[in-house]
Amino acid sequence: MKLYLRLLLTLLTSPFKKKINPLDKVITHWKVLPTDIDLLGHMNNGRYPMIMDLARIDFIIRIGMFKTLFKQRWVVPVGTTQLEFKKSLKPFSNYQIHTKLCYWDDNWFYFRQDFMLDEKQDLIAATGYVKTIFKGRTALSHPKKS
Fold first, then answer.
1. Given its phi and psi angles, is residue 73 left (phi above 0), alpha (psi -120 to 50 degrees) or beta?
2. CA distance 56 to 62
């Protein structure tokens, strides 16, 4: 099942959240819903990358880039996703995704996204690494490294 309702909520709420710098860590809050569960009673491993996409959309909106992306008709395809699972996310548990732009080169942007359990802020349930690119008719200028 696709995440259209969560996408709509992200698109409607993210513009009203605090604006951020591209090098800031962004925290988004989620709950494991019944549609996220697999037969083993925890969040399906295929759901993680989909939720990570939504967290990156929140990131893009909060750095103020979404309007430009939309106007310029840029696309943001993912080149690689790697996940490391450490602890299961159980039904109805609350968790956060901490999204951070870690690095970029001439073509790719590299993100780290940690799934953190709400009840234990220091406990990472999973970590995702994403390589993505912004493609369109006009070139994208990279954020300044600090």
1. left
2. 10
93 touches 37 (CB < 8 A) = no
Reported as type and span, the H/E element at residue 40 is none
Both structure tokens of 97: 């995704």
Which H or E run contains 145? none
Question: Is the pLDDT reported for residue 144 higher than 60?
Answer: no
Domains of the chain: 22-132 (3.10.129.10)
- Taking the C-alpha atoms of residue 31 and residue 115, their distance in angstroms, rounded to an integer, is 11
The DSSP secondary structure of 44-103, one letter per residue, reads: -TTHHHHHHHHHHHHHHHHTT-HHHHHHTT-B--EEEEEEEE-SPPPTT-EEEEEEEEEE
What is d(CA 12, CA 93) in angstroms, rounded to the nearest whole number?
A: 23
Question: Could you give the 3-state DSSP secondary structure of residue 124?
Answer: strand
pLDDT tens across 93-122, in order? 999 999 999 999 999 999 999 999 976 667
